[in-house]
Design goal:
By secondary structure, this protein is α+β, with helices and mostly antiparallel strands. The protein contains ten helices and 14 strands. The longest helix has 13 residues, at 224-236. The relative contact order is 0.15.
């Protein structure tokens, strides 16, 4: 087995815990995992599950990136997995100047998809992918409207209003925007792309239950129209590595919601319903092994699998 030193940031999050679980199931690599979080040791479960825990500054602080760079050097980290959108964006600016492998898209592409309004407009203008109608005026309002933050994550911060409750001031918010509410099923697509940004895996998951913006019950669904839309997006915007795309599907159409350039909060469900492609990710981006083609990878997906999440306790003794 090949030895690799891994850094998982934001280890208190369900995203990092999911990655940690898949890493520990590796059959190809012997991995030593360092975890970070802005909390003392023992104050989050992730700190008790990694091989070494280091308390970090908060991601928003001025010293955070320099802390990560120094930690990667001190711990001789081979691969860094950032799991927060803002962190991915910051690391994209310096990824080529550090010895540690950290996979991100180009900064301008990350900047586009960080802004949910700009990304929606961009895709509606340059592809045939549908988006929920953007509401910019107080006429011909649909029955329901959603208010979204431009830099929001998933369904966090989204508010749904009947049009009768909309006041004029809402149209002039600088940090948010309005879209028509679409009645339908929410989908998250787990994505793996190679170093060139070519799509190697796209696993749609229907979100059956959501808590605090993260799916806790999901069904792997072979929604070919959504898969084809992902092919189109990744053909136009090169995003290597791990990412996820969110859609909402009505009875007639499906609509792009957002793209997040990182492993999804319940991305482990895509792994459990297919194969441990985190092993392939490490083999490809660190050891230079070619990734399996899209058609072959997709044959390993067990469609209609349902994955549910549950809580598990950890204890730090005095």
């Amino acid at each position: 087995m090949q030895f690799v030193r891994i850094l998982l940031t934001n280890i208190a999050s369900v995203t990092s815990i999911g990655l940690l679980k898949t890493i520990k199931k590796s059959k190809l690599h012997d991995m030593f995992v360092v975890g970070t979080e802005a909390q003392p040791f023992g104050m989050n479960s992730g700190s008790l599950l990694v091989d070494k825990y280091v308390e970090s500054p908060i991601v928003e602080s001025n010293e955070y990136i320099s802390f990560i760079i120094d930690l990667c050097s001190k711990e001789e980290i081979d691969i860094l997995f950032p799991v927060i959108d803002a962190e991915v964006y910051q690391l994209s600016k310096i990824s080529s100047s550090i010895a540690t492998t950290v996979i991100t898209a180009e900064t301008n592409i990350l900047g586009l998809f960080r802004d949910k309004l700009l990304a929606s407009i961009e895709l509606s203008l340059n592809t045939n992918i549908l988006i929920p109608r953007i509401i910019t005026y107080n006429r011909n309002l649909p029955d329901k409207i959603i208010i979204r933050n431009r830099d929001g994550i998933g369904s966090k911060g989204i508010k749904i209003f009947p049009n009768s409750e909309i006041c004029p001031d809402i149209f002039f918010r600088k940090d948010g925007f309005l879209q028509e509410y679409i009645e339908g099923d929410e989908y998250t697509v787990d994505i793996l792309a190679n170093k060139f940004g070519d799509l190697c895996l796209a696993i749609p998951r229907k979100r059956l239950q959501i808590k605090n913006g993260v799916s806790t019950k999901t069904q792997i669904t072979q929604h070919n129209d959504i898969i084809n839309s992902c092919k189109l997006i990744y053909r136009n915007y090169k995003i290597p590595g791990l990412s996820n795309v969110q859609f909402i599907a009505s009875k007639k159409n499906h609509y792009f919601i957002e793209l997040n350039p990182r492993f999804a909060g319940m991305g482990i469900a895509g792994v459990m319903a297919s194969y441990n492609y985190i092993d392939d990710y490490i083999s490809h981006f660190y050891f230079g092994k070619e990734l399996t083609s899209f058609d072959i990878s997709m044959k390993q997906v067990k469609w209609d699998t349902i994955v549910c999440r549950y809580y598990e306790e950890t204890v730090m003794l005095p």
